[in-house]
Every structure is written in C-alpha cells, then in structure tokens.
C-alpha cells in the first residue's frame, strides 16, 4: 500500500518562520517610534535642566565690570590718603613761601636799625655778620627759645634772634633799645655788644658763642 507522502516541511516551516519574523519586525517597528519619542523626551528634559543650570550660573556669576568695582573703589580709597597728605604739605609750603618775603623784610629792617645804633655806640659789626649768626641761632624768629640746653636747665633759657640768656642781655644791654630780651633790635644790639667784647666783632662768630 502506498504511503501518502507528507509535504516537505521546509517551505511551510520557512513560511511560518517568515511570518513570525515579519510579525516580530512589525512589533519592533511599532515599538520603535514610542521608544524614540521617550528618548527624545529624556533628552529634551536633560537639555532643559542643563540650560536652566547654565542660566542660573550666569546669573550668579558677577560680570567683569561688577567684579572689578570693589577693587577699583579700594584702590581709589587707598590712593586718596597719600594724595591728601601731599596736598596738605603743598599748602603748608605755599603758605610758608608766601610769608617768607614779609619775614625777610622784617628781619632786614631790624638788622639795619641795630646797625645804626651800633654805629652811634661804636660797636663793630656788619650786616652779613649779624644776618649769618641770626639765621644759625634762630632762623630769624624773634620768639625762638632754647628749652633743653644747660642754660635752660639752670633756669635761664636762651631766647631771641641771637639766643641770649637774661643775665648776659642785662649786662650788655645798649641804651636806646628796649629792655626786653626778645625785642628784635634790643636782642641784636646787645648780642653784637657782647660779641665785640668777647671776640672783637660779631663778624668773628661762626658758632655758638
């Protein structure tokens, strides 16, 4: 008896397999858009987060101009101190320079008046000798006083244009002048009289005498 031949398994199996593969591919393809959408959403959220963080960072970080403002203000404040000191010193020097001609004119007048009295009294001395010693002893200040040397310690400080002590002034005071140790003309004339007695002339004095 002949057997009924069964159809070859190959084509049917292949067809079934093919259909299965096609179904799987279809399923994968149908899932792919959703997966891509999910991935895109994730990327979009990540991008927004990153952008937000960057914006926050830019907001918090000061600009170069703002960051440099404190340093600029500090530098200005630091420079203001020395500038003010220099300006004050310049004003002081200008004030002294303005007063110098007047002081020099007064000293010149005092010396010439003393020279006239010295000539009348026969006391030697010249303008140069008097002026040189006056500038060394007092700088031209009739109120100058030495409060630290041995004379001051003994209670008789040197005073006046030519820095005399009271006992010496009293001993060599020249009549016709004030009996005041710090009077400019009286001080100059008495000192010139003392120098003439001790050194021959005020012109011969070049240091403390």
Q: Which secondary-structure class do the elements indicate?
A: mainly alpha
What is the mean predicted local confidence, pLDDT? Answer: 74
Major β-sheet profile = 2 strands, antiparallel
Tell me the series of helices and strands, N- to C-terminal.
HHHEHEHH
Concise account of the structure shown:
The chain has helices spanning 9-60, 64-121, 127-137, 150-153, 166-172, 184-199, and strands at 145-146, 158-159.
Structure overview:
This protein folds into 2 domains: 11-56; 95-204, Lysozyme (Orthogonal Bundle). 71% of the residues lie in helices and 2% in strands. The chain is built from 6 helices and 2 strands; from the N terminus they run H-H-H-E-H-E-H-H. Helix 2 packs across helix 6 (184-199) and helix 5 (166-172) crosses helix 6. Mean pLDDT is 74; it is low at 1-70.
What are the key terms here?
6 helices, mainly alpha, disordered N terminus, 2 domains, two-stranded antiparallel ribbon, 2 strands, Lysozyme, 209 residues
SSE layout and pairing:
Layout: H1 9-60, H2 64-121, H3 127-137, E1 145-146, H4 150-153, E2 158-159, H5 166-172, H6 184-199
Antiparallel strand pairs: 1-2
Helix pairs in contact: 2-6, 5-6
């Amino acid at each position: 008896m002949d057997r009924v031949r069964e159809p070859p398994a190959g084509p049917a199996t292949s067809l079934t397999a093919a259909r299965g593969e096609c179904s799987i591919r279809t399923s994968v393809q149908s899932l792919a858009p959703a997966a891509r959408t999910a991935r895109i959403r994730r990327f979009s959220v990540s991008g927004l987060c990153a952008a937000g963080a960057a914006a926050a960072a830019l907001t918090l970080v000061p600009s170069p101009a703002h960051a440099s403002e404190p340093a600029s203000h500090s530098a200005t404040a630091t420079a203001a101190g020395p500038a003010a000191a220099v300006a004050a010193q310049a004003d002081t020097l200008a004030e002294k320079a303005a007063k110098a001609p007047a002081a020099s004119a007064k000293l010149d007048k005092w010396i010439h008046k003393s020279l006239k009295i010295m000539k009348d009294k026969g006391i030697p001395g010249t303008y140069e000798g008097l002026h040189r010693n006056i500038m060394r002893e007092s700088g031209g200040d009739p109120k100058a006083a030495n409060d630290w040397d041995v004379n001051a310690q003994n209670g008789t400080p040197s005073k006046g244009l030519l820095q005399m002590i009271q006992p010496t002034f009293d001993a060599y005071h020249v009549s016709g002048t004030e009996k005041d140790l710090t009077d400019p003309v009286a001080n100059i004339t008495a000192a010139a009289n003392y120098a003439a007695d001790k050194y021959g002339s005020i012109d011969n004095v070049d240091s403390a005498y």
